[in-house]
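ugh finaly. both done.
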Amino acid sequence: MTYSGNLKPIVLLVLITVALCLRANTSHAGTSTLTVAGGCFWCVEADFEKVGGVSGAVSGYIGGQTINPTYKQVTRGGTGHFEAVQITFDPDIVSREKLLQLFFRSVDPTDAGGQFCDRGDSYRTAVFVSDKQERNLAETVKAQAQNQLGQPIVTPILPYGTFYPAEKYHQDYYKGKKLVVTRFGPIRQSKAYKRYRKACERDIRVKQLWGDDAPFAGG
């Protein structure tokens, strides 16, 4: 008991040190989101769910005026929405910067009229940002990609708005087991997706643009 007076400052110091360590270890805990439009949202979702540190990707619509838009409304035009994907990731494993680098090299950012075989405003590329810091980062990564490509990149950096998840049947379409009717007859969603992606020549065009830096070509 005679040492209790001397121990109190030491115990306090230890507690403060432990608290600071815990704070440092949890400062980046949790998840963040990045929302991008890259043409067909099935393809973007399939690509980014392969990335380490990404816990999920949701297909949806963003950037327009219509509340709770449907797929038919968006693809028909007039709603102002993009087909987009909201990517949830752990910033301790993969950074926002890295995901943006992958995004620009997984699309044709020189095309202002859509992507690959999908034409129209809803299939344009875009990056959506929530604040100045995110905007500055996106603009920096875009400039780096443009410098590497040697061509003007038309992908806009737009303010984040309301994101509406797409209909249930669009989610994880690329690995779905449900049968869908195609001109080849009834086949599984996963097979229909692969045929669509190949026919649309997405990977061929991305490979032409980015060469070995195309991260998902062949996906």
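ok and the 2nd:
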Amino acid sequence: MAVVRWTVTAAVILLASELGAAADHPDPLAHSMQCIVVITDSWTASHGALHTFERSSGSGWEQHGQQESVVVGRAGLAWGRGDVDPSGLVGPIKREGDDKAPAGIFRLGTAFGYAAHPMATKVPYLHLSKQIVAVDDANSRYYNRLIDVTTVPHPDWRSAENMMLPDDRYKWGVSVSHNHDAVPGAGSCIFLHVWKDQSTATSGCTAMPEPVMISLLQWLDPAKQPRLVQLPRSIYNELRPKWRLPDA
């Protein structure tokens, strides 16, 4: 699966990606020079710790910055559809509406926010508006997409989230390439974004304090093929040598 691209057309703003690396690749981070690691205490934990790592070609992973607190899905984690195939591995499988954040390894796409102009970031940026919604209706042809409602004459979805909300959760964020091929019911519209507060978990995203989100956007470089690795601690420790994950 190649880098996620946000494509803006006259009708839709969508998550699009190309098929590529094999899901059973022995080193899913082989081409990545930046890695965000989120680790929780268990499959059902709604709080976790975020670590960031970087490396140059041929070198080992080195920690970047300090550990930060995050919240994930209110029901914890479940294996999502990303760069690795969880077949045969222990743990639940993510489904639409399960209130679980996706576990696995994922590419990152476009940044987004309320500001008309982005901060200093190398990540492509989407300015949100009241017309943009995240479609989570598995029966819609726009499932797992951000849509500009003013460009769709006949919306076919019954459920979608407005990306402009009274709180600041989407003030800054970045898309996660989960379920890129929009398999119905496998989960939709996953982001890293600003949290409401440290005690409020999400419906499936990973949220953090605004300064942490801003720092990530300033640090991320698409040329370094950043990845999000999100797992419970026991699974992370088990898979770290096989997948050559950072020592978090």
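summary for the 2nd one i guess: Confidence is low (pLDDT under 50) at residues 1-23.
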